[in-house]
Every structure is written in C-alpha cells, then in structure tokens.
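Subject line: Sequence and fold of a protein, written as structure tokens
Body of memo: The sequence and its backbone structure tokens, given next.
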Amino acid sequence: HGQRLILENRNRSGYDAGLPGSGLLITRVNDQVGFGAVSQASAQNPLLVIEEADGRSDLANNTNPGEPSDVFSTLSAGLQLSPQPGFGDSSVQLMSVDAGLVAYTELTLTAEVKGSNIGLDDLPPNAYVGAYGSEAAVRMTLDLGDAESADGVDVFLPGKADVTVRLLTSAGTLLAQQDFTGSYGWNRMLLSAPVAVSSLNDVVVEVISSPLDYSAPLAIDTQGMASGLTEVDTGNGYHSAAFDASVRLLVGVSPVAASAVSQPVAADSGDSASSSGGGGGAALWILALLPLLILGRRRAVAV
C-alpha cells in the first residue's frame, strides 16, 4: 500500500470532447489515507490529486474546474515527485513527460525491488469488523507466486490494539507467530526473522486484534466482489467472509531486471489494455510507484 500514479492519454474527442485540453493526465492516488468511513484524507493528505502540469493547485483549491495547462503536452518540461512525510527514505521522481504521438515516462527509483506485498483487498479500507472494544480474528489463504520469504504484514487498525500475526501452511502447520502493538492506520509488523516459503504454493495468514481502547478491532474492504478466500472467526470457528481484510503479506522476491521493463510505450498504441473513456483509443496505465511501505525496496523502471 502507498502511492500510485495513473497516467492517461486524454484526447478531446468522443466522451472526452468536453475536456479543457489534450495530453497526458497524471493522477496520484494515496491509499494510505483510507477510504469512506475510515478515511484520514485532508487537504494536506488527499486520497486523490491531479498533478497539474502548470505547477498550480487550481483543482484542489477549486479555483477553476480545469484548464489546458493541467495536462502534460509536448510543451511541458516535466514533473518531479517526492514521497509524503512519514513514508521513510524512499525517493521517487517522474523525470520527464513528453506527450505527443508517443508518451515517454521515465520513472527512476534508487534501488532494486526485492520485496512485494500480497493481499486480497482491492481498495482502501471502508468498514470495520468486530464489536467495538472486543477481539476479532480473520485469516486468508494467499497464493505465494514466486515469493522466497514471508517477512511480516501490513495491517490497517481502527485504533490502538495488541495484534497477533500467525503464518501457517494450508495443512495447518505453524510457520511463525509473533505479537505486536499497533495504532490507528496502517501498521508495518515485521517478523523477527523471515520465513522461507519458496517451497510453498500458498500460505495462510491469520491476524488477531484486541483493541486497547474502545475502537473496532480490524478494518476491511467491502467494495466490489469478495475473494471468497477470507474467513472470520464468528465465535464458533472460522467461516467464509463477505469481505476482504485490510491486511497485506510482505514477501521477499528475486530482484527484477530493469531491462525487462525499459521500453517506451506509444500513447496511442492499439494494444492498450483499457481506455480512459475517450474516443481516441486512449491508453491507461496504472503504475504501482510507491508501495512505499514495502521494506524500502525499489527498482529502476522506464515505461
């Protein structure tokens, strides 16, 4: 979890005919702030913000509803992004944007990515599970893919709580168990030693939260379709849940070579997986720039 950039090549045609200008629209999403009832969003810490090419903040300040200079065109020099306070020493820069027939965006991070996160929640937390001030427990089965080690979890807590994290095989063998104390918001809970998981196809993650104040024990994502892989302890054992927990497993993976993802992408490519709703075959990229809370591990990327 952290910050992401959404890059869209927007053209004034079709459904986008009413836009104030054409070019590369850059939107920054920060799901660290939560969503809906659990949102910590504020003017200083927004969930979503348009990176205006002219360097102004007209949209955030409601000065105007948008203008041609908000999007990056061939006349736009570039944009530099830095992580918000509290995100550690990660450094992210959007070095250059040249949006014409080809949009070339170079994303430079200062170290290799050696970690990732796995979870079932698609969107930021928007609800709670469990009675206020009472213990709650959830568990989920996660596909490990090419993960080599399990390092801990990121968990969103509605308040201060004692938390027990357990990792088990699908057969029920305990791999690791550790106790933590967390506070409101996302908490990084690292195991005292990584657990080797390269020989496993999946792992069961169990999180038990006991509030230390009169708050709900755990935050959840009820948006969209539930995965069916999350279970909640109802008092008489675990049962399938109609939600997914705001819990991510932190895993170690082999570094990804930068050359594998270094080719420019044509903004008007016919191979685009999706469109921004415009009539010109607009390309949409969702770039997971900042899982900034993923162990401070990064890689060089050019898209």
About this structure: Residues 154 and 188 are 5 Å apart (CA to CA). The mean pLDDT is 73. The chain has no helices and 20 strands. The chain has two domains: 3-113+255-302, 115-252.
